[in-house]
Amino acid sequence: MAEARVRAEVWAQAALRLGNAVGRYGAVLRRGDPDAGGILVVLRGRDGLMVLGQMRLGTGELAWMRGTGPAPVDQAAADAYVARQVRIDPDLWVLEFESPDLLPPFEARLV
């Protein structure tokens, strides 16, 4: 039996609430498909930005890939990465969070 998937819009709203609850305030930078859109998360830290891309492991488990690499990047590099991903998948949601330590405000397996 396949795992039930949460609608992208519901997931985005929940992530924003979790972020607000722990002082890592967030915003929707781009709305994608409300049902099945993928999600990118921009983390704004002390030393720069990091963009996380939602993915599924071979087991079907949700995980997050550091799309901009392991080190923080500047605004231009983060914007370029997001623009490339949106060209590939116009249904993407883009969320941004204040995150001094570049960790997401929600439970996430980073790969």
For the record, the CATH class of one domain is Alpha Beta
Work out the strand percent.
Answer: 25-35%
* Helicity, as a percent range: 25-40%
* Strands ordered across the widest β-sheet: 1-5-2-3-4
- Spans of at least 5 consecutive residues with low confidence: none
CATH architectural arrangement of one domain = 3-Layer(aba) Sandwich
| Class by alpha and beta content | alpha+beta
* Spatial shape: globular
Compute the number of helices. Answer: 2
Number of strands: 5
What's the helix and strand layout?
Elements: H1 8-21, E1 26-30, E2 39-44, E3 49-56, E4 62-66, H2 75-88, E5 93-98
Parallel strand pairs: 2-5
Antiparallel strand pairs: 1-5, 2-3, 3-4
Features:
111 residues; five-stranded mixed β-sheet; alpha+beta; single chain; hypothetical protein tt1805; 5 strands; 2 helices
Task: Walk me through this protein's architecture.
This protein has 111 residues and is of the alpha+beta class. It has a domain at 28-98: hypothetical protein tt1805 (3-Layer(aba) Sandwich), CATH 3.40.1530.20. The protein contains 2 helices and 5 strands, in the order αββββαβ. It has helices at residues 8-21, 75-88; strands spanning 26-30, 39-44, 49-56, 62-66, 93-98. A 5-stranded mixed sheet has the order 1-5-2-3-4, with helices on both faces.
